[in-house]
Amino acid sequence: MQLFGETLTASTGLLLLLALGLALSFEFVNGFHDTANAVATVIYTHTLKPTVAVVWSGLWNLIGVLTSAGTVAFGIIALLPVELVLNVGSGAGFAMVFALLISAIIWNLGTWYLGLPASSSHTLIGSIMGVGLANSLMSPGYVFGEGVNWNKAGEVFTSLLVSPIVGFSLAALLLILARNFLSRQEALFKAPEGEQPPPFWIRSLLILTCTGVSFAHGSNDGQKGMGLILLILIGILPGAFALNLGTDPATLQKLLASSQSVVSLFEERARGTTLPLKAAEVELSSFLKTGQATEKTYAALAAENRSLSERLTGKSDLAAVARPDRIALRSDIYLVGESVGKLLKKDAFSDPGAKKALKGYKEELDGITKFIPDWVKVTVAIALGLGTMIGWKRIVVTVGEKIGKEHLTYAQGASAELVAMGTILAADNLGLPVSTTHVLSSGVAGTMFANKSGLQTGTLRNLLLAWVLTLPVCILLGAATFAANLYVIFNLLGIK
């Protein structure tokens, strides 16, 4: 079988199709949860008919996905065990991808069936942690827990914890401000009556907020599936996807010059310590897990940069790199780029000139490996939109009627969605994943609280239970599925 210029065996082709199918299934189920939140207000208030609403939302999800930078996608990948990211085409790499997707799909389907707006972000991150913990437990010489990038996990947990609080508080405040400044617009503060649509200006406002949440959701949440799909393609078709083959010669020469110029920065910190290339890879993998930099870390960066320079010297474009060497070049770039990024976050370099040079160098490195083809973005957006069309109703009813003791008013829906849009876009710029579900649901709860409408404790208890259980359940599901997949792939399929 020929695909993207590479020859695949029947079994490898089958694994590729299965993995891509699971990744798109995850995004399809994601549509049940997250995109359904975006259309909840316009459908519940009869602003738009369901078919029109989900198609409109899907279109803006597509635009959000297509204009996204990919920072969230690769932020999620940074949570994965380094050795599995670098060897995603191995049997363990396949087991990792299948475990992540299967466990996330199982939990998302279960919570959707119960009508709970659960978080796909939480689900995926829990599954990633389960895979990392299982990998550290099952790999010889590893300490339990080393398989998780705890520094990155801390950043992600903070964003997932803070965003619902922001959603609740800001949505409540926005509704109070609207009551004070728009008190004469009585229609805005009424709940829908029968199937009668609201006045035109209110319909326009609600369509605008739905559009904003859909765009923000695509730009943030849609990236998770894109990152996983690219990881699959890199593992199975490294010749085509390990590197951005569209990189122009000028950019490549600039990267080569940068890789040579920063070596002195690392050698100065290494203080005479040197490491062979293999030991350098091990040292940087360890640094990415622990975040503890030593002289050996800088020696490893110097060694990896010299290797990178050697691989790029004389190459006018990345297509000139031999196919078997592309995955090795990607590994060099990944280790150097992630390590430089971590050092910059830790303020390891005080000199402004060094900081500027390293920041620019990291951006150049990211441009070579952190790219997402347009067809991947379009496919993910279609999967999200189709999922919304199939499963929107359960979540819409929960958001509209079961969070507060009174039905959702137009002003409450608009306030919650405006805050959700702003919160998600802010997180997108920071490269952090947030839950559209948690932000919007907490925003609705905040408006109910501000409106003194009362909150349905039963629904809130179920939402909180889903929020609390998602992480531990998905950690267990991810670990168990990873172990089972390893057995099947190693023993039944014979892939090492």
Helical stretch tally: 20
Strand and helix order: EEHHHHHHHHHHHHHHHHHHHH
* Mean pLDDT across every amino acid position: 80
As a percent range, the share of strand residues is under 5%
Low-confidence segments, given as residue ranges, are none
Say how many strands there are. 2
Helicity level, as a percent range? over 70%
Number of domains: 2
Largest sheet: 2 strands, antiparallel
Subcellular location: Cell membrane; Membrane
Membrane topology: Multi-pass membrane protein
Organism: Gloeobacter kilaueensis (strain ATCC BAA-2537 / CCAP 1431/1 / ULC 316 / JS1)
GO biological process, one term: phosphate ion transmembrane transport
Q: Your description of this structure?
A:
This is Phosphate transporter. The chain is mainly alpha-helical and 496 residues long. The chain has 20 helices and two strands. The protein has helices at residues 10-44, 50-66, 71-77, 82-86, 91-113, 120-138, 150-181, 200-220, 222-236, 238-241, 249-261, 263-270, 277-290, 295-312, 323-345, 352-369, 374-402, 410-430, 436-450, 457-492, and strands spanning 2-3, 6-7. It has a two-stranded antiparallel sheet. A hairpin with a 2-residue loop joins β1 (2-3) and β2. α7 packs antiparallel against α18.
Which secondary structure elements does this structure contain, and how are they paired or packed?
Blueprint lengths: L1 E2 L2 E2 L2 H35 L5 H17 L4 H7 L4 H5 L4 H23 L6 H19 L11 H32 L18 H21 L1 H15 L1 H4 L7 H13 L1 H8 L6 H14 L4 H18 L10 H23 L6 H18 L4 H29 L7 H21 L5 H15 L6 H36 L4
Antiparallel strand pairs: 1-2
InterPro entries: Phos_transporter
Protein name: Phosphate transporter
Membrane topology: Multi-pass membrane protein
